[in-house]
């Protein structure tokens, strides 16, 4: 038998039907659902008199536009249209019999944090959600990608997706990371290398010593941003770190089923000599704490660099860079570490897990944020929040001057009231620095949690290594 | 779903790379529970100022492009989120075809589910279509999905590739779910086999 990649193995285990032209029905093991991209899909089912094929494999949680302020139990803090969307999810989850974590449940949070936390996401599975950051779940060695609402409806009705196999890319990060360098810096540096369209048409497998050394939280951060490089899915082969994370989670198998599952998971790796269509290798020691300066995630540089000039680029990117600099209010040649900020946001499905909060707390302990700065920490789930309180992290944040919020997507996409005002500049641990992403004419610099914490103290983009 | 066979119409030029889904339809318009009506907010933050007045030099506000049915754009069109609100807004505005050198995967798929044809052409051919589009309303571009051709106003013809299954569905306005439900026996057989092999799933 010819050697297979991890992607080949998961794909082969999920093909329910293959047509002559290679179009497949890929069986879906877990379907995650949130309030923004699902109402039209449920409405479609109703109109066609169809039911949900596998409600026991369908998990719903509101996250995108729920308020994160402490008074959110009071529905008045939600806008009318947000409330209608959340209520539609409440109703659909109940009517179709889905697993559901409502806003009032302590387990509620960002769908990509709740899924792994509750043990819904396990190695070797296929996972989809009407959200591009579904790539996060690839950290477990599960094939996970975002889908549109029509495909949400298709999965609800059939538990399958119509798919053709993607190409396969290997991204290897060799050796060790230097102090102050994190999973966020790895994933942003890879995008800097490939560009935001470099991964289009590919499923990426991340490997190498620096990836193996990451915790599950770090691996989720890496895979989360696979989509920002254009890849629908990122994968990391499961290992002992993965099994240890999954063990004992509410929906992970137990007893003999656990043993059988682990035995199967141990077969999920890329065989020696398997073919990749593209290979990229970065040295872990070459990766620096990174920051974005423009309005595309590919606009990334080490914090020690200066703002580039449009003349550094070619083709369509020349105009795009000029547009980005105008939007961001930056001048070529300015050191990135001199850019002053108004706001710090720590949270999101990229960096809203406990390890991220620990990294921020390590920098913030005993310090204060700069006068006049707005800083908020939005934990990725109610359980992350509870754990951070138990570990004393919440006290560190509050004493430093951060707002300590309830769980949700918050200022990552600013669908709830957590937004930047026009012209405000934010150091953000989220995943997209698009125009208007965090608020109309808001300016976003993507960074790791430690870098965000450092920026909160100094009031400008700061090399976290100076604070360690 | 609406069928797509042929289209002759005005092409609007947007010579920008990385036009993302947040530009196509900003998040404040994702709070709808319907698929319709989003055309009014297509490219909202590029098209209108904060008071809701049209920004005159934005392409779709120019008199010659207000009735555009084709959009010509740069690399990596539709990057970013999975929001199907992006193709819904494009379609609702009246655009049925996008021409670009490349697209983000999820957006590309979403188009076919909504009767929109996303055409991929090499950069130099996109440049030629862009130049034609810049002539304004008198320059009409023709698309023939069956023949897989784009014909410019001067008669120059470019061929494009499209997946045969996606083409078949788009030309016939087929409902994917209906097609898949015809294969429900295969799905059930797969489920029986998979639950024996991986009972913990």
From TrEMBL, chain A:
Instruction: Give the organism, scientific name.
Output: Litoreibacter albidus
Q: Does the keyword Lyase apply?
A: yes
**SUPFAM superfamilies annotated for this entry?**
Aconitase iron-sulfur domain
Q: What is its EC number?
A: 4.2.1.33
What is the annotated quaternary arrangement, including any partners? Heterodimer of LeuC and LeuD.
A single GO molecular function term of this UniProt record: 3-isopropylmalate dehydratase activity
- Indicate what this protein is called per its UniProt record: 3-isopropylmalate dehydratase large subunit
Q: Which cofactor does it need?
A: [4Fe-4S] cluster
Lyase as UniProt keyword:
yes
UniProtKB/TrEMBL annotation, chain B:
Keywords assigned by UniProt, alphabetized = Amino-acid biosynthesis, Branched-chain amino acid biosynthesis, Leucine biosynthesis, Lyase
Aconitase A/isopropylmalate dehydratase small subunit swivel domain residues are 1-124
- Kindly list the biological process annotations in GO that this record carries: L-leucine biosynthetic process
What's the EC number here? 4.2.1.33
Provide the Gene Ontology terms for cellular component: 3-isopropylmalate dehydratase complex
UniProt GO MF annotations: 3-isopropylmalate dehydratase activity
Pathway given in the UniProt record: Amino-acid biosynthesis; L-leucine biosynthesis; L-leucine from 3-methyl-2-oxobutanoate: step 2/4
Keyword check for Amino-acid biosynthesis: yes
What general EC class does the enzyme of this chain belong to?
lyase
Its UniProt entry gives the catalysed reaction(s) as: (2R,3S)-3-isopropylmalate = (2S)-2-isopropylmalate
State how it assembles.
Heterodimer of LeuC and LeuD.
Alphabetized HAMAP family for the sequence: LeuD_type1
Q: Which family does it belong to?
A: Belongs to the LeuD family. LeuD type 1 subfamily.
Functionally, this protein is described as follows: Catalyzes the isomerization between 2-isopropylmalate and 3-isopropylmalate, via the formation of 2-isopropylmaleate.
What protein am I looking at? 3-isopropylmalate dehydratase small subunit
Q: Which organism is it from?
A: Litoreibacter albidus
Q: Which gene encodes it?
A: leuD
């Amino acid at each position: 038998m010819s050697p297979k990649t991890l992607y080949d193995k998961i794909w082969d285990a999920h093909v329910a039907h293959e047509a002559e032209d290679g179009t497949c029905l890929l069986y879906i093991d877990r379907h995650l659902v949130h309030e923004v991209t699902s109402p039209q899909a449920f409405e479609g089912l109703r109109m066609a008199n169809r039911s949900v094929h596998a409600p026991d494999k369908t998990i719903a949680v509101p996250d995108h536009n729920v308020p994160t302020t402490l008074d959110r139990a009071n529905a008045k803090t939600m806008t009318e249209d947000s409330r209608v969307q959340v209520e539609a999810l409440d109703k659909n989850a109940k009517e179709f019999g889905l697993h559901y974590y409502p806003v009032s449940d302590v387990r509620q949070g960002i769908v990509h944090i709740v899924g792994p936390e509750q043990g819904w996401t396990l190695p070797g599975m296929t996972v989809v959600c009407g959200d591009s950051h579904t790539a996060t779940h690839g950290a477990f060695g599960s094939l996970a990608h975002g889908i549109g609402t029509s495909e949400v409806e298709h999965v609800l009705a059939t538990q399958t997706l119509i798919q053709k196999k993607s190409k396969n890319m290997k991204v290897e990060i060799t050796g060790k990371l230097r102090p102050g360098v994190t999973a966020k810096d790895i994933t942003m540096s890879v995008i800097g290398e490939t560009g935001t369209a470099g991964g289009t048409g590919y499923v990426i497998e991340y490997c190498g010593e620096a990836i193996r050394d990451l915790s599950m939280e770090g691996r989720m951060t890496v895979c989360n941003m696979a989509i920002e490089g254009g890849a629908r899915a990122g994968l990391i082969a499961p290992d002992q770190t993965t099994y240890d994370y999954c063990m004992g989670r509410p929906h992970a198998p137990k007893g003999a089923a656990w043993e059988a599952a682990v035995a199967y998971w141990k077969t999920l790796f890329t065989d020696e000599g398997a073919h990749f269509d593209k290979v990229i290798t970065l040295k872990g020691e070459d990766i620096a704490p990174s920051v974005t300066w423009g309005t595309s995630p590919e606009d990334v540089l080490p914090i020690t660099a200066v703002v580039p000039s449009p003349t550094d680029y070619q083709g369509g990117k020349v105009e795009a860079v000029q547009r980005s600099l105008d939007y961001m209010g930056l001048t070529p040649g300015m050191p990135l570490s001199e850019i002053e900020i108004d706001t710090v946001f720590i949270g999101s499905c990229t960096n809203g897990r406990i390890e991220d909060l620990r990294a921020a707390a390590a920098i913030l302990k005993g310090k204060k944020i700069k006068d006049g700065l707005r800083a908020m920490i939005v934990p990725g789930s109610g359980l992350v929040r509870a754990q951070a309180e138990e570990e004393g992290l919440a006290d560190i944040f509050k004493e430093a001057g951060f707002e300590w919020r309830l769980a949700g997507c918050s200022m990552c996409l600013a669908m709830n009231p957590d937004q930047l005002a026009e012209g405000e500049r934010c150091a953000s641990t989220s995943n997209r620095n698009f125009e208007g992403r965090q608020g109309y004419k808001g300016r976003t610099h993507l960074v790791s949690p430690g870098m965000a914490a450092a920026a909160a103290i100094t009031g400008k983009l700061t090399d976290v290594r100076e604070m360690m | 779903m609406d069928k797509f066979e042929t289209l002759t119409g005005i092409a609007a030029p947007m010579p920008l790379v990385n036009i993302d889904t947040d530009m196509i339809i900003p998040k404040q318009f994702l709070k709808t529970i319907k698929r319709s009506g989003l055309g009014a907010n297509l490219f909202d933050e590029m098209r209108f100022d904060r008071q809701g007045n049209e920004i005159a030099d934005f392409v779709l506000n120019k008199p010659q492009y207000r009735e555009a049915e084709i959009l010509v754009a740069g690399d990596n069109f539709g990057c970013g989120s999975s929001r199907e609100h992006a193709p819904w807004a494009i379609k609702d505005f009246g655009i049925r075809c996008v021409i670009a050198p490349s697209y983000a995967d999820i957006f590309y798929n979403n188009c076919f589910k909504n009767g929109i044809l996303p055409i991929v052409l090499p950069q130099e051919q996109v440049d030629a279509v862009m130049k034609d589009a810049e002539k304004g309303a008198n320059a009409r571009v023709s698309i023939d999905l069956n023949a897989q051709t784009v014909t410019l106003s001067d008669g120059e013809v470019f061929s494009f590739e499209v997946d045969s299954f996606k083409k078949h569905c788009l030309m016939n306005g087929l409902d994917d779910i209906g097609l898949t439900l015809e294969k429900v026996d295969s799905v059930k057989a797969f489920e029986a086999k998979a639950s024996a092999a991986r009972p913990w799933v």
